[in-house]
Write a structure and sequence with these properties.
This protein is of the alpha+beta class. The protein is built from 15 helices and 19 strands. It is 33% helix and 24% strand. The radius of gyration is 21 Å and the shape is globular.
Length: 483
């Protein structure tokens, strides 16, 4: 097996690989990568370098982890999971990412492909009109500073109070759509300026809104699927992938500068400056945590306003209310976040950067409706290949701090992808294959070509066989809005 590293990588189970602490000076715990042999061979050198750098950070517990969708990221690898003792450990913006609480939301409907196919063009046009996309795009919600601070504190709850959602929505969002501990006084004026007009917008990069089909033959666990509202028979669902936009980016930028200075004060050295961090209980660490939670709550609110717009678009096109169309949220889950959770080691601040919480059945954090199934996990693939709905497992709680993959993971840079295909050609090719795409930027569309990503099915099979998540259904795209 040929790997992109000179370090020793030992196989400890069929889908688990371990780099021992002896491979890099300063490693406090082993680094573990979840992957098949084929996926491991395709991982870039950055994954091995970065996951072992993370293993050197103060207060880390058990393992530094990387999921099968892992690839090079800012400081931490995308697909990374690391848990730090809240008393002795650190918090690091690089372990959260610039797009704080980037996440996935899935909305079910009672519609089928037969209902939607004849109206797909007007539906996608209406969705494209109602949900702004692209760099710096603004939404229809206009807020003053005080109202935006309410959004930071309340998250999706603020939206429901203002009529942009249903009360039942909140139970179907991680943390009820509102993480405690958000303090707007810890957010800079510049971050507020960047975020105050962006509620209800997709943004750019790999963010999207997708209309998908669930065929009966692509449901792998009918009982769990039914509990999640997924019925098959060419059922239509809608997936949203976006986060905290410019607001979260500015929060991360602000505190990376703070932490670079704080590390000298606390005598912390790191293998890579992008791992800038501070003790979790320090004033700097607590300030970042409070500001990060503001950004996380704004991301929940962003996806909630988008959901409102999606419901309005479907109602306009199909001439029925969203309630009559059965447009209930299945779940909303973050995949760029740091959260305090309790494990056998004690209270830990768990960093998930391009990885998803995957709590197993019975956990009190889950809404009553999902206590028996485990937490829904939404994993987006490329816009050409499809996505998956899975559920968390008890094994994830034991092995990965209740975490799993978040998507397919890139195999090619955006610049490389743009050199390989033109956006206009890709849009025509996808239309011929039954996928209608509307994009703000053709070069941005080319960046997201399917060949730039790992095969989502290979990645999903890895976590399914490893037992840290259980696949429920595959979702096939028929319409995509790309920022």
């Amino acid at each position: 097996m040929k790997l992109n590293t000179d370090m020793t990588v030992n196989r400890v189970a069929d889908e688990i690989w371990e780099i021992p602490p002896s491979e890099k000076p300063g490693m406090l715990v082993p680094a573990r990568i979840y992957a098949t042999e084929r996926i491991l061979e395709t991982m870039d050198r950055g994954v091995f370098d970065q996951v072992t750098n993370v293993a050197c950070l103060p207060g880390i517990r058990r393992y530094a982890l990387c999921m099968p969708d892992g690839h090079w990221g800012y400081g931490f690898p995308i697909g990374g999971v690391a848990a730090f003792d809240t008393s002795e450990g650190v918090i690091s913006p690089g372990g959260v990412g610039y797009d704080v609480n980037c996440g996935m939301r899935l909305i079910r409907t009672d519609l089928t492909l037969t209902d939607v196919q004849p109206r797909l063009e007007p539906l996608m046009t209406e969705l494209f009109r109602k949900v702004p996309a692209g760099v710096g795009s603004s939404g229809f919600v206009r807020l003053g500073r005080r109202e935006f601070e309410d959004v930071m504190r309340k998250g999706a709850r603020w939206c429901v109070e203002k009529g942009y959602g249903w009360h039942e929505d909140l139970a179907r969002i991680e943390e009820g759509g509102c993480i405690a501990g958000a303090d707007p006084s810890k957010v800079s004026d510049h971050a507020v300026e960047r975020g105050i007009n962006q509620l209800g917008t997709l943004g750019s990069g790999n963010h999207y809104l997708e209309v998908q089909v669930v065929s009966s033959d692509r449901i792998f666990d009918p009982q769990v699927a039914a509990a999640l509202g997924i019925t098959g028979h060419d059922q239509i669902v809608v997936m949203v992938h976006c986060g905290s936009r410019g607001f979260g980016h500015q929060v991360a930028s602000d505190y990376l500068k703070v932490f670079e200075k704080a590390m000298r004060r606390y005598g912390i050295t790191v293998k890579d400056q992008q791992l800038a961090c501070a003790p979790f209980r320090s004033p700097e660490g607590q300030d970042y945590f409070a500001a990060m939670n503001c950004a996380a709550n704004s991301a929940f609110a962003n996806r909630q306003v988008i959901t409102h717009q999606i419901r309005e678009a479907f109602a306009a096109v199909f001439g029925k209310s969203a309630e009559e169309l059965g447009m209930h949220i299945v779940y909303d889950v973050a995949h760029n976040i740091a959260k305090v959770e309790r494990y056998p080691e004690g209270e830990l601040v768990v960093h998930r950067k391009g990885s998803t919480r995957a709590f197993g059945p019975g956990r009190p954090e889950l809404p009553e409706m999902y206590r028996a199934t485990g937490q829904p996990v939404i994993c987006g693939g490329s816009m050409e290949t499809g996505s998956y709905l899975l559920v968390g497992t008890e094994r994830a709680m034991q092995e990965t701090f209740g975490s799993t993959m978040h998507g397919s993971g890139r195999t090619m840079s955006r610049a490389q992808a743009k050199k390989s295909v033109r956006g206009e050609q890709l849009q025509r090719d996808m239309k011929q294959r039954g996928i209608l795409v509307k994009a703000v930027s053709m070069s941005g569309l080319a960046e997201e070509a399917g060949f730039a990503y790992k095969n989502i099915s290979d990645v999903v099979e890895t976590v399914d066989r490893a037992g840290i998540t259980k696949k429920v259904a595959e979702l096939r795209p028929i319409g995509n809005i790309k920022g």
